[in-house]
Amino acid sequence: MNRYLFQLVCCLLIATGCSTHKFVASKYPNGKPEVVLYLKGEGEEAVKVMEKVYYPNGKLDYVGRFENGMEQGEWNYYYEDGTRKYTENWDKGLEQGVQIEYAPDGQIYLEKYYEKGQLVRTVDKSKRP
Fold this sequence. Notes:
Blueprint: H1 2-18, E1 20-27, E2 33-40, E3 47-54, E4 60-67, E5 70-78, E6 84-91, E7 94-95, E8 97-102, E9 108-115, E10 118-124
Antiparallel strand pairs: 1-2, 2-3, 3-4, 4-5, 5-6, 6-7, 6-8, 8-9, 9-10
């Protein structure tokens, strides 16, 4: 019984994994990818579920997810050296919650708070002793 359940779960994971595919939308002259889209479905029915954008050196610039064609969940942005630059949170295409901005040394210097796409408060952490 447990073996059957294991096989069923494996088949479901494989089937789910096969439904999303990677598409390199653009490349730099050096051949490294610039924009990589992850699509679910095939042909005209394919929808973007994730986007990754890279710097020319191959390091990740940003990554974010889509749901029903709109930004959804946490999006992360990076400096060219790979250090986190800022983090945003999205809900159905609108900024929601806290956006945290980081200095190149990794320290938090700014927090922005959003409610349904509207900026409601900013906290400047760079001016603290």
